[in-house]
Amino acid sequence: MTQQQTSEAGSILQEIARDWRELLAGSEGFLTSKQRRGLYRQEVVWGEMDSMGHVNNVTYNRYAESARILWAQRYAREIDPKHAQQWTQLWTPKGDGLILRSIRTDFKFPMKFPDKVTVYHKLGSRPTEDTDSFVLDVLILSEVHQRPAARCVEDIVVYDYRKGKKTPLAPFMADAFKETWRLQEEAKKRNSERVNYLLGRVRSLEQNTWDRSDAVEDLGSAKT
Q1: 19 and 98 Cβ atoms separated by less than 8 Å
Q2: Which of 20, 42, 134, 210 is deepest in the core (most CB within 10 A)?
Q3: CATH number of the domain within which 103 lies
Q4: Is residue 108 part of a domain?
């Protein structure tokens, strides 16, 4: 490799190392900013491993649950503070609440101590005023391996504790989730373009390196 090619390779690696969460999760539509994330680089502790020497399967659901609560709390604190009280009450039996109806978890590889996890949530579909249940997609990342350790799908019901039955999203929630959906689609497009651009740079670097290698080989053969 020439000095210029080495510099290009280093630049690509530096960008991937710095922004791997955005490139990986963001290209799927997950919002990775501090304002939007659930768990971020939380320590995996020794006691979360089972007798097989890897993080127990149940623990992934706990990661998802904790991240979901934090994800929702960010609406109260940072995203929609005007309705902070209503957002906060979603996790209490005082009015409208969000209930986990079901969760499906797909395990990608066994994490081990020591490691850290980062967990993101995203809306599975664009909500409407009539929405009384919705799906959240969950991405659980291993910080050590920089790859998904598990993926979850959470089915959430909007429940009116006063009437004891399902209820549509309150207008403030529907508006906030619609904006979230818009931002998710923008993140997916923006980060997918970044991934494709980086792949293009890698392919160009590989081709230029191979071409130079062939040229050096041809020169050597000619001298022989």
Answers
A1: no
A2: 134
A3: 3.10.129.10
A4: yes
| DSSP, res 85 | H
Classify residue 43: in a domain, yes or no: yes
Give the tens place of pLDDT for each residue, 190-216.
999 999 999 999 999 999 887 665 555
Task: Read off the pLDDT of residues 55-113 as tens digits, 9 standing for 90 and up.
Answer: 999 999 999 999 999 999 999 999 999 999 999 888 888 888 999 999 999 999 999 99
β-pair partners for 166 = 159
Domain assignment present for 155: yes
Q: Is residue 9 part of a domain?
A: no
Residue holding tokens 């409208």? 96
One-letter amino acid of 25: A
Q: Please, are residues 122 and 31 in contact by the beta-carbon 8 Å criterion?
A: yes
159 phi and psi, to 5 degrees? Answer: -125, 130
Q: Give the number of other Cβ atoms within 10 Å of residue 213's Cβ.
A: 11
